[in-house]
Recover the amino acids of this structure.
């Protein structure tokens, strides 16, 4: 055996050894986090077990001196409440058997470890979704596998037994090892650049008291039976020596190690890359509030479907006519389609259905998801408020409709199996409601992105949660109130918002539909008039322009004005004047206008922009911080570079009417100042006057065509500093890219776009 890596761990938060088992859990259940060539892992079975007595090991089998002074400390086990190694209940060594104070302390540690390890196990199929199939190994077979392996250890395989039980100066030298044994399948990620690698099964042996985790690969013998193979066996262990914690990686029979570069990397990778990640995870006192990826579907089926769809639709990247990034949006929709196809396939198997599910994608955007699902045999259509260029490329079998939807009794889908909300923005909280009222068997899938309530922006309530986590909980609450069993999953897509919510079954029988719908109505109306922004922040009196028709992934749609506070109709209803909110739907929802409004300050009046720029520049120049520096022609010139002010300080100097107009634009004041690149620099929230003497030329030499375009762009605009700065421009006329006076102006060589 050989130690291929060892790392000391700084543990100021006293997280070890709990943190060690948390790190092991990540590598056990989600190995793709560390090894990017893996798709995931599936836990198939779990059991408690015992090895032959440790005294079967001969002397000299320790992996090294001081490798293991003691096991985990008292009262510390794997992370409480989470899945981790479990030890079977059995005879405990009490303090009466201890002849010395040190031995007594050791026994107390072991007893505390057993108590810490007594938390219930997670269902073996939960994390990796152990689905049924001809490739699955029945759970009962783990028992015979382990029994055969134990017998081989006791009758001739003493070296491997020593590796498992005597890697360190182990505890319990006279007692049998009590272990947690897991059977898992490691699933490689497929790639066109390398041959397809079949999934690999292995047994993982966790010794909590000894702080070791051993990975035993399985192989088929000549008769087709699985057995433990002697190559590629490795162990991760936690040790405590001279007041310090260490984590090590050891290999059994390094001369037999065979690296395939995927499931089994080189030993140096284990001792460096993996060890570094485990050491870091050990002391991270953070627990994710989200599910593991692909927890509701088969990882193996998903991986296969994704590979096939990616190969089939990869040409879309080359012909993408939209302004959005094709690499991101094509492969993201391919991944979502693969997930839905497997989810629906498993639903058909569960319910004994043969017909493929129908669907409607609300806010379909570019329509690619609709195109893929339709091409794969699912009847459906997509609806969006605005047609995209790419729609005409899909062909007649892809049904895409340009329309706006307001949630009401006329916008239900009684003949549809699934409603999809892929980044559906304002309609996201309504999708569970529409699905519930369309038909009892109608299901929903939503992938929330922007945060909207039934009408208006979603108001934050829980400061202890992230806004994203709080909004997901809100959508789950909506689905549960509508009568769905809402499940959460995390997709593998190139997006920071990748948690989806699925409602595919009801919590009530069809006979209770009327009473449940009454509760839905009460809940929806309880959300009316919810404040969108705190009082006293310049609230806009205009009604909210909330809309349906998301582009999917926020590709060009703008969010609501954050000044909108609540629904005017709801305010009037609560005061007793104006229309009362009646019926099962909430008034105040307005579809987004078909023509998308530009809100990046570019459409503001030119006079208004010039006024704000001049006002902010005078404010900064009022500091009068002269900056003597050499110009590019070698002359020294004293030039007022002004002071630096924060955006808040600049905003406080502007009048209320100007600020109100800026708030209607995305980014407001900061966007306007960034757009005025010639005059200002905005860095980390600080506004500066731009000194063009500090602007350095690009290090990389541009292409000839680019150099020609830059040359043609020179002197096509007036220099703001030449006209407005008290010291003029810091650069001489021949060095400044802008015109010093009308006489230097020249026509642009590039025709301007006509709006």
């Amino acid at each position: 055996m050989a130690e291929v890596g060892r790392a000391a761990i700084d543990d100021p938060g006293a997280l070890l050894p709990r943190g060690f088992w948390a790190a092991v859990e990540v590598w056990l259940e989600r190995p793709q986090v560390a090894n990017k060539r893996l798709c995931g892992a599936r836990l198939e079975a779990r059991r408690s077990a015992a090895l032959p007595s440790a005294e079967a090991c001969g002397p000299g089998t320790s992996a090294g001196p001081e490798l293991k002074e003691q096991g985990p400390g008292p009262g510390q086990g794997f992370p409480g409440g989470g899945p981790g190694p479990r030890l079977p209940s059995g005879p405990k060594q009490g303090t009466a058997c201890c002849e010395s104070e040190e031995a007594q302390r050791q026994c107390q540690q072991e007893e505390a470890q057993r108590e810490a390890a007594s938390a219930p196990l997670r269902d073996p199929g939960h994390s990796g979704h152990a689905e049924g199939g001809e490739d699955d190994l029945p759970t009962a077979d783990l028992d015979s596998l382990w029994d055969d392996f134990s017998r081989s250890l006791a009758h001739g395989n003493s070296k491997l037994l020593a590796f498992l039980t005597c890697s360190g100066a182990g505890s319990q030298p006279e007692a049998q090892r009590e272990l947690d044994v897991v059977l898992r399948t490691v699933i490689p990620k497929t790639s066109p650049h390398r041959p397809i690698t079949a999934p690999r099964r292995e047994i993982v042996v966790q010794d909590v008291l000894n702080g070791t985790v051993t990975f035993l690969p399985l192989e088929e013998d000549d008769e087709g039976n699985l057995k433990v193979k002697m190559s590629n066996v490795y162990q991760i262990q936690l040790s405590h020596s001279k007041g310090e914690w260490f984590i090590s990686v050891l290999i059994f029979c390094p001369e037999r190690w065979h690296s395939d570069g995927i499931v089994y990397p080189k030993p140096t990778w284990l001792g460096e890359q993996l060890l570094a990640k485990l050491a870091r995870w050990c002391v991270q006192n953070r627990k994710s509030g989200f599910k593991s990826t692909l927890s509701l579907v088969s990882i193996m089926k998903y991986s296969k479907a994704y590979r096939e769809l990616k190969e089939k639709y990869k040409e879309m990247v080359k012909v993408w006519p939209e302004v959005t990034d094709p690499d991101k949006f094509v492969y993201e929709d391919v991944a979502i389609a693969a997930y839905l196809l497997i989810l629906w396939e498993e639903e058909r198997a569960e319910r004994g259905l043969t017909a493929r599910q129908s669907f409607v994608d609300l806010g379909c955007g570019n329509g690619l998801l609709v195109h893929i699902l339709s091409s794969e045999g699912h009847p459906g259509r997509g609806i969006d408020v605005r047609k995209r260029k790419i729609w005409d490329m899909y062909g007649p079998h892809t049904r895409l409709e340009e329309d706006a939807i307001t949630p009401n009794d006329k916008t239900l889908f009684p003949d549809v199996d699934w409603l999809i909300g892929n980044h559906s923005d304002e309609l996201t909280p309504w999708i569970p409601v529409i699905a519930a009222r369309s038909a009892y068997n109608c299901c929903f899938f939503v992938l929330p992105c922007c945060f909207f309530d039934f009408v208006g922006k979603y108001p934050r309530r829980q400061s202890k949660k992230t806004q994203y986590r709080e909004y997901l909980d809100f959508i789950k609450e909506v689905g549960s109130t509508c009568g769905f069993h809402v499940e959460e999953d995390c997709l593998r897509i190139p997006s920071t918002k990748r948690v989806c919510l699925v409602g595919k079954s009801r919590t009530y029988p069809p006979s209770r539909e009327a009473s449940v719908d009454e509760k839905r109505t009460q809940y929806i109306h309880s959300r009316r008039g919810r404040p969108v922004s705190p009082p006293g922040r310049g609230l806009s009196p205009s009604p909210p322009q909330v809309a349906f028709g998301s582009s999917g992934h926020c590709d060009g749609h703008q969010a609501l004005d954050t000044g909108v506070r609540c629904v005017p109709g709801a305010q009037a209803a609560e005061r007793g004047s104006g229309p009362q909110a009646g019926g099962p739907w909430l008034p105040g929802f307005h579809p987004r206008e078909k023509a998308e409004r530009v809100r990046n300050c570019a459409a503001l009046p030119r006079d208004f922009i010039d006024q704000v720029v001049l006002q902010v520049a005078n404010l900064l120049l009022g500091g009068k911080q002269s900056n003597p520096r050499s110009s590019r022609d070698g002359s020294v010139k004293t030039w007022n570079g002004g002071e630096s002010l924060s955006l808040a300080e600049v905003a406080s100097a502007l009048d209320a009417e100007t600020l109100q107009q800026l708030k209607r634009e995305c980014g407001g004041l900061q966007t306007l100042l960034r757009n005025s690149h010639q005059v200002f620099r905005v860095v980390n929230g600080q506004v500066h006057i731009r000194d063009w003497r500090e602007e350095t030329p690009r290090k990389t030499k541009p292409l000839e065509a680019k150099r020609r375009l830059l040359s043609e762009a020179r002197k096509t605009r007036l220099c703001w500093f030449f006209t407005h700065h008290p010291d003029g421009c810091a650069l001489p006329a021949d060095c400044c890219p802008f015109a010093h006076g009308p006489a230097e102006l020249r026509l642009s060589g590039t025709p301007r776009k006509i709006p």
Notes: The chain has a mean pLDDT of 77. The chain has four domains: 2-50+138-165+175-282, 299-526, 595-622+640-685, 691-754.
